[in-house]
Write a structure and sequence with these properties.
By secondary structure, the chain is mainly α. It is 49% helix and 10% strand. The strands form 4 sheets. The protein has a 3-stranded antiparallel beta sheet with strand order 5-6-7, with helices on one face. A two-stranded antiparallel sheet has the order 1-2. Strands 3-4 form a two-stranded antiparallel sheet. A hairpin with a 2-residue loop joins strand 1 (129-130) and strand 2.
Length: 414
């Protein structure tokens, strides 16, 4: 028996420490209700859970944004409701002023009320606001789209760079298989060289369209009067070799080809089509409401200017019978504009209400998914805790027994 190292006690202690740590984790989860309290509990699960939490909070805020949008629309629509009432009263007065039963003095009094009503329409348009944003004065009217198909002129600056034209680049070619020069009919070339140390005068050779290297060398032979005993050839280095009757060969390594007569070509574009893009500097002034948890998930809300000028009511004057008759038509048009605007806002409000419902459903489903990742299963964790607690008590008891084993050695020493 050995007493210096108590292996049984060490094993019992290790099991006790493991069970104690497991019991501590179970207690933490049971007390917090969370299966993931720190990254070490479940690293991947924590990352997924945090991403879901970000989406959930984004959806909840988007729902609040949509509710704020509804409040804004209700503010504008309530103001337009009053504008509608004013226009109905103005139309009533215009119909009254159009009757022959009134005189000009009566119509003048009616016009005073009409003028006050127009001032009130302007006041409503300029003062109606939500969180300091003007709603009916045209500040959030939205973008204006202009269409056109004519381009009066295009000016291209000389220093502005090249205008790209699709086409093929043409070059003079040397055809090795046919031994043709890429020269023009009628061009004249000059050949300067030396023969055996004797200077050879400059000789010209007129090129024709069908001219080949063979015809060129024949012309050189004729120019130098080589006759049948001499020859002209081209060696692998590209030099023109002239052999005389005495067998002496002279190589012309530097051949100068010059064009005596040059034909100029002016190729013009007879017609071309150019496409230019134009963009104005008008900015979209409509309100953008964030209705989603991610970027660019927005809707635009715009309200037309509802001032007297935009409603074309500035000229309304019922002080005369003719003016009163004309005012009826003008006011009817204004009523139509206000009705259209209110209908548009009502449609946007209904859309936002459906958006809120959808956001609530999405947030609810995502919360349930996040709960399955993050929250602890209380029944399962309680079963684990009970097992760990029993093992902890057993390990404690076994450690006590292991510590008592060395005491038996004392019996041998008595």
């Amino acid at each position: 028996m050995r007493i210096n190292t108590n292996i049984a006690a060490l094993n019992s202690y290790r099991a006790l420490a493991v069970n104690e740590m497991s019991s501590s984790k179970s207690l933490e989860k049971l007390s917090s209700g969370l299966g993931i309290n720190k990254a070490a509990d479940n690293a991947a699960g924590l990352a997924i859970s945090e991403k879901m939490r970000g989406q959930i909070r984004g959806l909840q805020q988007a729902s609040r944004n949509a509710q704020d949008g509804i409040s804004l629309i209700q503010t504008a629509e309530g103001a337009l409701n009053e504008t509608h009432s004013i226009l109905q009263r103005m139309r009533e007065l215009a119909v009254q002023a159009a009757s022959d039963t009134l005189n000009d003095s009566d119509r003048t009094e009616i016009q005073r009320e009409v003028s006050q009503l127009k001032d009130e329409i302007d006041r409503i348009a300029s003062n109606t606001e939500f969180n300091t944003k003007k709603l009916l004065n045209g500040d959030i009217e939205g973008a204006t789209t202009a269409q056109g198909t004519e381009l009066e002129s295009v000016v291209l600056k000389a220093s502005g760079g090249a205008l790209a034209v699709a086409g093929t680049s043409l070059e003079a070619l040397f055809d090795a298989s046919n031994n043709d020069f890429g020269l023009v009919d009628g061009d004249v070339i000059q050949i300067n060289g030396y023969k055996g140390g004797t200077a050879i005068a400059t000789t010209t050779f007129t090129v024709t369209v069908s001219a080949t290297l063979t015809s060129l060398m024949t012309a050189i032979s004729d120019a130098f009067s080589l006759g049948a005993s001499g020859s002209v050839s081209i060696n692998p280095s590209g030099e023109i070799v002239i052999s005389g009757a005495d067998g002496t060969a002279a190589a012309i390594s530097n051949v100068k080809l010059s064009v005596a007569d040059r034909t100029l070509f002016n190729n013009r574009l007879s017609s071309f089509t150019e496409t230019q893009s134009a963009q104005d500097n008008h900015t979209d002034s409509s309100l953008s409401i964030q209705i989603g948890a991610n970027q660019s998930q927005t809707i635009s809300v715009s309200v037309t200017d509802m001032s007297v000028q935009r409603l074309a009511l500035s000229s309304v004057d019922v002080s005369t019978q003719t003016g009163a008759n004309n005012a009826v038509t003008v006011i009817d048009n204004a009523l139509s504009k206000v009705s259209t605007e209110r209908a548009k806002m009502g449609a946007v409000q209904n859309r936002l209400e459906h958006t809120i419902n959808n956001l609530g459903t999405a947030a609810e489903n995502l919360t349930a998914a996040e709960s399955r990742v993050r929250d602890v299963d209380m029944a399962l964790e309680m079963a684990q805790f009970t097992k760990t607690n029993i093992l902890l008590q057993a390990a404690t008891a076994m450690l006590a027994q292991a510590n008592q084993q060395p005491q038996t050695v004392l019996q041998l020493l008595r």
